[in-house]
Write a structure and sequence with these properties.
eight-stranded mixed sheet, 19 strands, alpha+beta
């Protein structure tokens, strides 16, 4: 029991370190250089050139004395690089981030970055999340600036302490692990006190004072807790020194050791409380009994809490793993798109003049001839046709070109790495969708070059067909189609309607360009250049999201394993209580030839029934709170019940055998 208890404290200490480091990592990204206010910008509607907006932000920071930062993922190395864009004329001074000149050493494992001044943002989008200091003049100036330039700006203040604590423990998988590890420790303590019940009763009979018995219990807990916490602290200090760098230890050690001390105080306090609760009374001693009802009440309460927690956390683990898998499957896509760019225009109306329509078409021809143009648009994301699609058996209607198909690794008539397109005739499509296509496509294509009947239509065979909804990179609008109807445009520059499709698609980022230098060259020589306010990479937000989920999935797996072990251990503790409560029954029935499992069967059924009800309740709560898919929740609940059943059946048999052997030897 000493070893189990000490190892539990080692594990909890490791979780204290991990939770503290996660909190520090969150603070680095959530409040870089102590910038406490979050500002979300959406520049989709502005007509002001990007360079002018950046200059104005720099002046606002300089004149107000406030600080403005933006954290961005480096597209060249999305997994291991995050940079900080800073505004103004005062280079930020490090207080919670290690910086050597312009090199950033984030606390996150293997993540580095650079300090980049806003004048060097280049293709990085101006839309996104910023962190600004809590400076009244700065905030007022930013609001005026946003209103003047038709920019949507939303401000969020720093989370209060209660919300931070809730976020650390309830919304954080490591926090979940920490809480449930403490529940596991409580079950270990209960098991220890159950084993010591007879010894404690003898001490009372011998005249030892109750306070002295409690002091001995606390002494045992303190000694083993100190051993566990020291071992855990040494292991984790070396781990973080090795994985994060020795220079990061100064950031970690002080807040972590404070949290370890608080945890030790909690363990000592709770052990003293349990010692008082399960203390045997005179009636127990007179009847040579132990206070089993109190043990049962505490054990049942902990089991219900653990099961409820499991049904809230484990489905999130599955969901997170699915999202991470999805991101991993899409990684080839975002890797290719990391060097793809979209244009943002100051005034779309000017593009519709006869002169500019010619210029747009010429610009498209040049980019197409240089193999630097791709088209991808999910029409159903802009026009409501879900009923027509559903009746036809399709989930999306997508217009694209061969360049996009090749980039996605999809073959035409021949299977490639990520699937194949099979040609289908328009007449074979359901009437309602066919009618929509025949009415809509003449508005989107150049009918002087081809007509709707001559377009090529395809179905898709494969896992997922990746396409773009409007505003990729600003709205994180990726789309994974399983059974789309694909309309393939062979010559976008000549076959697409400039007014009906090209200009709107340029403005929403559904026509993208794969070579920045070629794009700059043709823009430089185009009359369209004055109308372009920014050239932005489209993969920033998706890469940042992928980075987040890649980290979280491991944490959720640790939380789930901790929960499953704790659920099983509470069941084993219940079996231990049952065996102690039914010593005479077990001895008599075994000596009369009844098997271990037949003796335990009635109580096992009750145990499984109550546990099943707790699992059902946990599933309902999980669905209501986190809206996890009901199939995922049901699968997790069923799996938990099966594992619980297997281990608890073994525990009932084992503890029955132990109690019987003790009875035989009169122990």
């Amino acid at each position: 029991m000493k070893k189990v208890f000490s190892m539990s404290v080692v594990f909890i200490t490791a979780l204290v370190f991990a939770l503290t480091v996660k909190s520090l990592e969150f603070n680095q990204r959530g409040e870089p250089f102590k910038a406490e206010i979050v500002m979300n910008l959406n520049t989709a509607d502005t007509k002001t050139p990007k360079r002018t907006l950046i200059e104005e932000l720099n002046n606002i920071s300089k004149n107000s004395g406030g600080e403005i930062y933006k954290i961005v993922v480096d597209k060249e190395n999305a997994n291991n690089n995050q940079n900080i864009i800073w505004f103004g004329d005062k280079k930020p001074v490090s207080n919670n981030i290690i910086i050597n000149q312009d090199e950033i050493r984030w606390l996150s494992k293997g993540v580095n970055g650079r300090l980049i001044h806003s004048t060097k943002m280049e293709e990085m989008t101006l839309s996104g999340t910023y962190h600004v200091s809590n400076n009244h003049d700065l905030l007022e100036s930013l609001k005026e600036w946003a209103e003047k330039n038709q920019i949507k700006a939303t401000f969020f203040e720093k989370q209060n302490t209660i919300k931070k604590i809730y976020g650390n423990f309830m919304s954080n998988p490591i926090g979940n692990s920490f809480l449930i590890a403490n529940v596991f420790l409580l079950v270990v303590l209960l098991s220890y006190f159950l084993m010591k019940s007879k010894e404690r009763s003898i001490k009372l009979l011998a005249g030892v004072k109750r306070i002295d018995i409690i002091r001995d219990d606390v002494k045992f807990v303190l000694q083993n807790s100190l051993i566990g916490s020291i071992i855990g602290s040494i292991i984790m200090t070396f781990y973080y020194a090795f994985t994060r760098g020795v220079e990061q230890i100064n950031l970690i050690i002080k807040p972590t050791m404070l949290n370890v001390i608080f945890e030790l105080m909690f363990i000592i306090g709770i052990s003293a409380l349990i010692s008082v609760i399960v203390e045997p009374k005179a009636s127990h001693i007179a009847n040579r009994e132990i206070p089993l009802k109190r043990f049962k009440t505490l054990g049942t309460t902990l089991k219900i809490l653990t099961v409820l927690f499991a049904l809230i956390v484990i489905p999130m683990t599955v969901t997170s793993a699915v999202i991470t898998s999805k991101m991993a499957n899409e990684h080839f896509f975002w890797d290719k798109m990391s060097k793809s760019f979209r244009l943002t225009f100051s005034n779309l109306d000017e593009l519709f003049t006869d002169e500019n329509i010619i210029q747009v078409q010429e610009f498209l021809r040049n980019m197409q001839n240089e193999n630097s143009l791709s088209v991808s648009m999910a029409i159903d994301q802009s026009i409501e046709i879900s009923s027509e699609l559903q009746k036809s058996g399709f989930d999306h209607l997508i217009i694209t070109d061969k360049s996009w198909i090749d980039n996605m690794g999809v073959g035409i008539g021949k299977k490639e790495e990520n699937g194949v397109l099979r040609e289908i005739k328009l007449d074979d499509i359901d009437f309602e969708l066919k009618d929509f296509v025949e009415r809509q496509m003449p508005l989107l294509i150049n009918e002087e070059k081809l007509n709707t009947q001559n377009l090529k239509y395809y179905t898709f065979e494969g896992d997922k067909f990746l396409a773009l909804a409007p505003n990729p990179g600003k709205m994180d609008a990726t789309l994974q189609a399983e059974n789309p109807l694909v309309i393939l445009i062979e010559n976008p520059a000549d076959e697409l309607n400039i007014k009906g499709f090209v200009i709107p698609a340029l403005s929403t980022g559904n026509i993208v360009f794969s070579n920045r230098s070629i794009l700059d060259k043709h823009l430089q020589n185009s009359p369209l250049k004055p109308l372009v306010i920014s050239v932005d990479g489209i993969a920033d937000l998706a890469l940042q999201t992928a980075q987040k989920f890649k980290t979280q999935v491991v944490d959720y797996i640790v939380a789930s394993l901790t929960l499953l072990v704790t659920v099983i251990f509470t069941g084993i503790f219940g079996a231990q209580l049952w065996a102690n409560e039914n010593k005479k029954k077990i001895y008599v029935m075994l000596t009369n030839g009844v098997s271990y499992m037949d003796i335990a069967k009635p109580d096992l059924r009750k145990d499984f029934l109550y546990t099943g009800l707790a699992i059902f309740l946990g599933s309902v709560i999980c669905y209501q709170i986190r809206r996890v898919d009901i199939r995922t929740t049901s699968l997790v609940g069923l799996s938990t019940l099966i594992l619980y059943t297997i281990f608890v059946r073994l525990a009932y048999r084992l503890h029955s055998k132990v109690v019987f052997e003790k009875s035989v030897h009169r122990e």
